[in-house]
C-alpha cells in the first residue's frame, strides 16, 4: 500500500510538471505599420496576419496549432473527456415534420452521424426513405446542408450546401420522385434561402469574388435573382438590386399563395426596408411599405389581399399589423395585435389562427389569436423554458413546436389546430438525468443599477462554498437574445460538477429594442459592465471564486470576452474568446463586416473611433497577468475572419506577464460555426473542456 501511495504521488507530480512546463510560443514577426485616426497614431504590427493565404501566415497557423496540441496532449484526461462527450452526444434526434399534400419530410440523426439525414414519408403507414443524406457529401463531414425548400408543385427539392463552414452556399436541385440531381447548380449564394415561384425560384447572391479573396474580400452589391429550372446560372434574371448602394443586402420571399413577392432590404444588422410586388400583375412595380432603416419589419403571411407583418415601428416590444398594396405606408397600417409589456419573438400562421411567441423574462409564452386579433387561448407549455416557432402548412390540421431548457433536451410537441391542444410528439433518450439538476433564474444589479437576469444551472446537491468550477457565458449584441436551450457540450460540464451560468446582458432582444439600444454604439460599455457584474455576483454569492471561474463567448460574445479580460485581467482564471470580433478599428474591411457598423459604429467616424478605440480588445492589451486563455477560430471563417483572433493571439502572447498559458486553436477546414459536423464539435469541446478543467484545477468525475 505504501509503495502504491508513493507511485500515485509520483505520477501526480509528473502530470503537474508536464502540464505546467514553460510554453515556448512561436516567434511572431512584427512590421512597422502605423495608421493615423483623426490625429491618433495606432500601431498594427501584426497586420501581415490578415493575409490568411500567405505562406507566412499558414506557417504561423501550423506552429500555433502545434503549440496548443502539445499543451493539451500532456493532460491525461483529454481522451476521457472526449469519451464523455461522444457518449452523451450519442442519442437519436428528430426534426419537426413538414407536411405536404403527397408526403412529409423530416430530419433524423441516429446519434452517431455528423449531420441529420432528410427522410421522406409518403403515407403514415409507409416506410420512411432517405431523401437527402448530407453525410455522403464529404468524408469528413465538412460539407453541410444549410437549407431545403420544396417547390409549390412538390416535384423538386432545392437545397443549399456549404463547405468547411463558409457562408458561401451552392444551390442544387433534386427531383423528389426519382431522387435524381438536376443540372441546375447555383454558386456564390450568400445570406439567402430559396423561395419558389412557378418553374423556378428566387435567391440572393453576389458576383464571383476574385480568386484567392473568397474568404476575406468585402461583400458588396448583393442582388436578388430569379432562376428558371433547366437553365444556366448566367441566364438568371436580376430582380432587385441597388447600384447606388453597394452595402445593401436583399432577401426575397414569395407568399404561400404565390400572389406576392416580398423583398427585405438592409444596410446592417438592424433595420430594414420592405418592398412588395403583386406577382399576379407581372408588369407591376415594387411598392415600398417602409422606406427607412429605423425599424425592423418582417412579413408573416397573408390572407387574400391582407399582408400581415411583425414590426417594432412605434413599438419597441413589437406589434402585429396588416396592410394592403393600396394602404402600404406605416401610417396606413392597421394594428391587429398591439404591443405588450413583454416582447414578441416570432409569429406564424397555422390554419386560421395566429400563433404568437412572446419572451417574458427570457421564458416563452405562446398566445393564439384569430385573424381579427381576438385572443383565443394561451398555449399550455410543458414548463419553464423556450418554445420554438409553431411550424405548420396552412392546409394541414396539425402544427408543431419544440421545447427545451438548459437541463431538458429538446422535445417536439404537436398541436391539434381545431381544439388547440398539445401532445408530446417526440422525446429524445439522452443519458442526462434532468431530475438531478436544477436551473434557477436570478436578477442582479449592473454598475448603473439596471437589473439583469441570469440563469444558473447545476446539480441539485451542490454546496455554495466558493469552490465550485463555473463557466459564465453571454452574448450581448445584435438584438439577439440568449435563451435556455439544451446543449450537450455544457451538459458534460454540469455532469462533472460544474456550474453553467448565462447572463442576459444588454445588447440583446430579451426586453425589446430598448434593451438592444442600451448595449450598442456608444452604449457598448454597458454590455461589459453587465458581464463583470454577473461574475462578481457569482463570486459574492459563493457559487464560485476567481480561481474557479471560466468566461466564454463567441462571435460578438468573443468581443465581450476580449474586452472584459483587457479591462479587468483578474476577473477569471480562464477565458475562451471564440471566433471573436477583436479588432474594432478594421472589422469593416472584411467580408460582411461593414454591416456591423450599425451595431458598433465605425473607425471612419471620428466620434465613433474614440469609443471603439477605448474598448477594442486588440488595442487595449497591455503588460499584465491575464487569465489562462485559449482563443478559438476557424481558417474558413468568412463571417468574422480569423485575422481578428490571429492578431489578438500574437499580441496577447507578448503582453501576458503571468504564468497562465495563452494559446490559440485554429480549426482547419472550419468556419464560424454553422453546419459544423458532430465530429468537429466533439473535438472542439474536448479541447475547450480539457483546457478549462485543467486550469480550474478540476478533474472529470470517476476519472482514474
Described by strand count, sense and barrel closure, the largest sheet is: 8 strands, mixed
Task: Count the DSSP helices.
Answer: 11
The level of helicity is 10-25%
Strand content: 25-35%
Mean pLDDT: 92
- Gyration radius (Cα, Å) is 26 Å
How would you describe the shape? globular
Structural class category: alpha+beta
Strand order of the largest sheet: 32-33-35-34-36-37-38-39
Task: State the distance separating the first and last CA atoms.
Answer: 17 Å
Low-confidence stretches: 1-19
Number-wise, the strands total 39
Please explain how this structure is put together.
The protein has 704 residues and is an alpha+beta fold. Helix content is 19%, strand content 33%. The protein is built from eleven helices and 39 strands. The strands form nine sheets. Strands 32-33-35-34-36-37-38-39 form an eight-stranded mixed sheet, with helices on both faces. A hairpin with a 7-residue loop joins strand 6 (117-121) and strand 7. Helix 3 (78-89) packs across helix 11 and helix 6 (525-540) packs across helix 7 (556-567). The protein is globular. Residues 1-19 have low confidence and may be disordered.
Amino acid at each position: 500500500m505504501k509503495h502504491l501511495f508513493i507511485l500515485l504521488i509520483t505520477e501526480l507530480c509528473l502530470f503537474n510538471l508536464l502540464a505546467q512546463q514553460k510554453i515556448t510560443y512561436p516567434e511572431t514577426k512584427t512590421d512597422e505599420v502605423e495608421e493615423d485616426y483623426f490625429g491618433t497614431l495606432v500601431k498594427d504590427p501584426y497586420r501581415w496576419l490578415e493575409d490568411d493565404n500567405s505562406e507566412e501566415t499558414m506557417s504561423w497557423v501550423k506552429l500555433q496549432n502545434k503549440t496548443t496540441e502539445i499543451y493539451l496532449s500532456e493532460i491525461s484526461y483529454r481522451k476521457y473527456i472526449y469519451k464523455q462527450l461522444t457518449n452523451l452526444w450519442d442519442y437519436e434526434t428528430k426534426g419537426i415534420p413538414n407536411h405536404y399534400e403527397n408526403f412529409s419530410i423530416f430530419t433524423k440523426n441516429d446519434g452517431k452521424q455528423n449531420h441529420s439525414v432528410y427522410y421522406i414519408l409518403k403515407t403514415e403507414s409507409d416506410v420512411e426513405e432517405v431523401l437527402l443524406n448530407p453525410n455522403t457529401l464529404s468524408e469528413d463531414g465538412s460539407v453541410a446542408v444549410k437549407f431545403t425548400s420544396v417547390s409549390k408543385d412538390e416535384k423538386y427539392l432545392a437545397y443549399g450546401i456549404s463547405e468547411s463552414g463558409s457562408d458561401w452556399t451552392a444551390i442544387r436541385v433534386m427531383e423528389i420522385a426519382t431522387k435524381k440531381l438536376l443540372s441546375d447548380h447555383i454558386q456564390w449564394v450568400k445570406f439567402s434561402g430559396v423561395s419558389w415561384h412557378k418553374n423556378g425560384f428566387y435567391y440572393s447572391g453576389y458576383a464571383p469574388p476574385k480568386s484567392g479573396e473568397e474568404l476575406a474580400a468585402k461583400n458588396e452589391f448583393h442582388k436578388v435573382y430569379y432562376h428558371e429550372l433547366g437553365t444556366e446560372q448566367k441566364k438568371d434574371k436580376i430582380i432587385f438590386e441597388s447600384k447606388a448602394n453597394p452595402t445593401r443586402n436583399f432577401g426575397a420571399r414569395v407568399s404561400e399563395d404565390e400572389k406576392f413577392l416580398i423583398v427585405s432590404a438592409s444596410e446592417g444588422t438592424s433595420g430594414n426596408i420592405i418592398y412588395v410586388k403583386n406577382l399576379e400583375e407581372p408588369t407591376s412595380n415594387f411598392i415600398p411599405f417602409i422606406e427607412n432603416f429605423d425599424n425592423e419589419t418582417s412579413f408573416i403571411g397573408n390572407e387574400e389581399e391582407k399582408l400581415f407583418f411583425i414590426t417594432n415601428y412605434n413599438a419597441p416590444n413589437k406589434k402585429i399589423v396588416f396592410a394592403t398594396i393600396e394602404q402600404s405606408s406605416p401610417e396606413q397600417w392597421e394594428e391587429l395585435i398591439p404591443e405588450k409589456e413583454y416582447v414578441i419573438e416570432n409569429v406564424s400562421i397555422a390554419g386560421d389562427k395566429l400563433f404568437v411567441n412572446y419572451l417574458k423574462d427570457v421564458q416563452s409564452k405562446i398566445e393564439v389569436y384569430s385573424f381579427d386579433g381576438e385572443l383565443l387561448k394561451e398555449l399550455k407549455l410543458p414548463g419553464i423554458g423556450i418554445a420554438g416557432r409553431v411550424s405548420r402548412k396552412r392546409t394541414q390540421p396539425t402544427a408543431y413546436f419544440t421545447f427545451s431548457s438548459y437541463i431538458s433536451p429538446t422535445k417536439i410537441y404537436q398541436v391539434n389546430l381545431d381544439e388547440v391542444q398539445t401532445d408530446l410528439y417526440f422525446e429524445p433518450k439522452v443519458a442526462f438525468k434532468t431530475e438531478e439538476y436544477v436551473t434557477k433564474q436570478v436578477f442582479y444589479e449592473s454598475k448603473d443599477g439596471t437589473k439583469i437576469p441570469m440563469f444558473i444551472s447545476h446539480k441539485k446537491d451542490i454546496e455554495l462554498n466558493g469552490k465550485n468550477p463555473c463557466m459564465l457565458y453571454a452574448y450581448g449584441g445584435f438584438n439577439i437574445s440568449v435563451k435556455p436551450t439544451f446543449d450537450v457540450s455544457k451538459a458534460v460540464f454540469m455532469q462533472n460538477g460544474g456550474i453553467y451560468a448565462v447572463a442576459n446582458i444588454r445588447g440583446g432582444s430579451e426586453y425589446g429594442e430598448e434593451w438592444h439600444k442600451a448595449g450598442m454604439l456608444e452604449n457598448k460599455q454597458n454590455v461589459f459592465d453587465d458581464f463583470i457584474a454577473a461574475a462578481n455576483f457569482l463570486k459574492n454569492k459563493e457559487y464560485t471564486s476567481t480561481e474557479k471561474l471560466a468566461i466564454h463567448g463567441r462571435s460578438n460574445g468573443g468581443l465581450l470576452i476580449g474586452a472584459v479580460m483587457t479591462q479587468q485581467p483578474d476577473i477569471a482564471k480562464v477565458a475562451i474568446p471564440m471566433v471573436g470580433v477583436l479588432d474594432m478599428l478594421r472589422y469593416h474591411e472584411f467580408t460582411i463586416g461593414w454591416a456591423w457598423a450599425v451595431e458598433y459604429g465605425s473607425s471612419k467616424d471620428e466620434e465613433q473611433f474614440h469609443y471603439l478605440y477605448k474598448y477594442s480588445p486588440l488595442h487595449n492589451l497591455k503588460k499584465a497577468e491575464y487569465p489562462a486563455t485559449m482563443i478559438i477560430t476557424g481558417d474558413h471563417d468568412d463571417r468574422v475572419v480569423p485575422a481578428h483572433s490571429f492578431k489578438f493571439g500574437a499580441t496577447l502572447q507578448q503582453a501576458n506577464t503571468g504564468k497562465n498559458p495563452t494559446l490559440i486553436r485554429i480549426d482547419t477546414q472550419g468556419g464560424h460555426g454553422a453546419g459544423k459536423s458532430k465530429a468537429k464539435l466533439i473535438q472542439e469541446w474536448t479541447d475547450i473542456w480539457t483546457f478549462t478543467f485543467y486550469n480550474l484545477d478540476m478533474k472529470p468525475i470517476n476519472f482514474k
